[in-house]
Every structure is written in C-alpha cells, then in structure tokens.
Amino acid sequence: MKSVMMPVIAGMIAACPAHAQDRARPSALKTVQVATRSATIEPAAAGFISGAQVYPFSDATIYQVYAAPGLVTDIALQPGENLVAVASGDTARWVIGDTTSGTGEGKTTHVLVKPFSAGLLTNLVITTDRRAYHVRLVSTSGTALSSMRWTYPQDELLALRRRTEATQAAAPVATGLGLEQLHFNYAITGDHPAWRPLRVFDDGVKTYVEFPATLASGEAPPLFVVGADKKAELVNYRMRDRFYVVDRIFDAAELRLGIKKQQVVRIDRVSRPSKRRGA
Prior knowledge:
The protein is an alpha+beta fold and 279 residues long. Helices cover 20% and strands 37% of the residues. A hairpin with a 5-residue loop joins strand 19 and strand 20.
C-alpha cells in the first residue's frame, strides 16, 4: 500500500499551486529586478546645478538618491505642490521628515532624509496633490547628495501652449487692413439658430465669418462652399476666437449643423455697387 500511495502523494505535491509558485519564483524575481533596474535613474554629472541633482520628472521612474550618516539630503518638490504623505520601507534605520520654504505660489516642500549607518537600501514614496514620486535610497559611508529636485517638462510644455493660445486669442483676427479694403456685402439667409453669423466680410484674400459669443458654449457648424454646379464642398478654415477665417474668397457657402433636423444658414457674396460716373 505504501509503495502505491507514494507516487500519488508525490504527484499531488508537484501539482500544488504553492510548489508551482516556488518553481516560477526565480524567473519572476529576475523579471522584477531587471524592470526595476531599467526604471531607475542615477545621478549624472550633466544633471547637477549648483550642487543639486536635477532630474526630469516622468511617471513610474525611480530616482536614485545617495545619502550618508551625519548628513541630511534635501529632496525638494515643485513650488506650490502640496505634500499628502511620505512612506518608506525602512523607518527604523532612516530619519525622514519634511519642512517647507517660501510663501504663496513659491512655497516649496522639502523631504529630508538621513540614514543611521552606511550600506542601507530602502525606498521612498512621496505622494502630493499633483503626482507620486518613487525614490530609491542608498546609504554610503560619506558620499551624499546635498539636495535634489526635478524639472517638469510636461508642465512647462502645457504652460507654453496656454501662453501661445492666450496670445493668439488676444491678437486681432486681421491687422494692417484699411476699411476701404474690406468688402461687407454678404447676404445671410436661412435658419435662425443661436450660432447664426452676425456678419461676413473679406479683405480680397481671406473671408471672415463673425459669430455671436455664444458659439464658444455650443457646437460649431461646419462650413461648405457651394460651387456654380450647386454642389457643396467642405472648405478648410481656422477658428479664431468667434471668427472663421477662410483662406479664399467664395460667392456662396452654407453653414450646416444637425442630422435629422439640419439647420442651414446660407452666405452669398453680393457684388459691390458700381460707382456712378463723376461721383
């Protein structure tokens, strides 16, 4: 009986999930180690500015910090960023605190770290009202970063885009045009939706369709140019504030919006009245 049961028991043990996990563990651990190593950024000579290591911030990146006993390393966050929590894997052998500097929009949070001895390794997770930082802390016998901080390329790009958009919005739709160059004789007919244009004019090169201010809070209608064959063709235009700017002159066009019950507003260019001789 014993000789018969032993292979069965051995097979059950081999099929046990725990043993399957034990067999898979070495490769899984190696995968984690490789992924962690590739996600970690270490201090670089080009990244130092006046003694501070500056990293470009990126989500899910791990930032290496070297600290030493008897020295405090200052981890500075983005000005105006509010600290939510700081968590460390080893709070028994590391002193971790926080403080602030400055006031108003320039108020900066500093996370301060100091190890009790050399040869220690732990991690630090800093969460704020804007993002989460992942830091790898390594202690040495005497070499430490005095301070480190980040730059924020995505925030800078967004701020630049907003400044550009604000500048464009503040700029006039057209500049350097005399009143005598403008042609205002356009007839607007058709339906009366909330977005019906207030007026249309051209400068001989471009056509400008002016809408009411309510256009910003609703759906903008596409513009179709109607040719001599009565066929409508979608035309390219730019939206500037509450104006459509079309890089051409057209004789007839239509603004259309809706599917089941379509609203249509037609725009027709009327020829300038001819001047009387001697006028």
